[in-house]
S53 family peptidase
Amino acid sequence: MATDTSRVPVPGSEKKAVAGAQSTGLVADDERIDVTVRIRPRTAIQSLAQGSVQSDVLPSQRTYLSRDEYAASHGADPADIAKVEAFAKAHKLAVVEANVERRSVVLSGDAKSMSAAFGVTLHNMEHEGGTYRGRTGSISVPADLADVVVGVFGLDDRPQADPHFQFKVQGRSFAPRAGSASFTPPALARLYDFPTGLDGSGECIGIIELGGGFRPADLKTYFASLGIPAPAVKAVLVDGAHNHPTNANGADGEVMLDIEVAAAVAPKAKIAVYFAPNTNQGFLDAITRAVHDKVNKPSVISISWGSAETNWTAQAMTQFDQAFQAAAAMGVTVCCAAGDNGSGDGVGDGAAHVDFPASSPFALGCGGTKLTASAGKITAEVVWNEGTDSSTGGGVSTTFARPAYQANAHVPAAPDKFVGRGVPDVAGDADPASGYEVRVDGQNMVIGGTSAVAPLWAGLIALMNQKIGKPVGFLNPLIYGQLAGKGLFNDITVGNNGAYHANAGWDACTGWGSPDGAKLLKALGG
């Protein structure tokens, strides 16, 4: 091996401190740290873009890779894994796990050894929002690993993402349960004409959670109230996380919203909830665990957590995007909430920002609307916007170039004139004022946010997968291609999210609009 005097930075690993954060001292030498080292694929990941996942063809004409086939063609090379294991041994780090399909090696050791291995200085950091173990600058590896290691995650453990849900607030111009002010998920499914006679049998919906938990007793009570059998829910624990419910004011609201919405739409689908720590390492590991899960085999994944692109390292966004490309190659749809803080996405600098991971070109970005209904029919649907801290995300990526499938969507340029990927792709009811009736920690409540839209779409996709008998997979090329303009969506033409306004066709507030489920299924071949 090359000596540590010849080191190379890991591209895109540069990191800044949280705004206003100050060091309170170096991390203790003996503090235990686990990191995930991502390894290059044995075949260039770009080759996936030339395959069926980018094709504007119906699911019946697509050829997907099985999880085993994907691991064989695009997993890590065992020789590369061996190089990382030798590097770990030289730096007195233990190999906890090595995984070919997930292209990852998990290493464990003390802070002193980790700092030396990856060329970083670790500090205990403190800011208004809390404390974290942090680093600044780049991570580096020995020169002979420069082409092998494409990402290192876990040295810095700051919270990475926010859940995109909001409770209905009292004192606005609506009553908590009045008329059509709120909806059960099955009621919304009927309003959006989800296909009937289907229940998601044989499908698995994967849900990513970075905190909180669920109580089986709540699920039993909730689904009994809907007259639906309680779903089969399995907790998959990642990186030491747990199904840890606390109270309704925390992340439990996100977890229960996601499960209850998805399962109420597709009650016979298996629900696999991947719990992970809220760090870039935990988030990425949960996604790769779900995408490559050979036991539960989710055909659709719902992600309701995210943060503005400016809060991510380039290495993280690249690896998330590659994980979504892997999902597309295997026919797995990934639904991501577009954010709840308008076109500024909570950054607060007056500029427009877009939320990640919804901004990945391989994600189905899910924006939000405000819905009004009467007598079982939609009477009005507009962009969700109750102010900058309660409105749908959406905009244009400054990281990901505009994908070919959006060439004719009239996506505006990003604020820096970058020709970027437009977000969202689709939408659904999200305003807490027209929110979802759910049960969290023994309380019945109404919750909104684009968090609800991702599992709503995930449930619809599970129904379509069941009917078609083959996963619909990566939908974006289809809905921007041969299915565009076919009346498969309720086009939202009224409202704005700050910097962007709704208009006929695609827009950076609600994408193509909310679904007409039966028409979409028929158009996809069901």
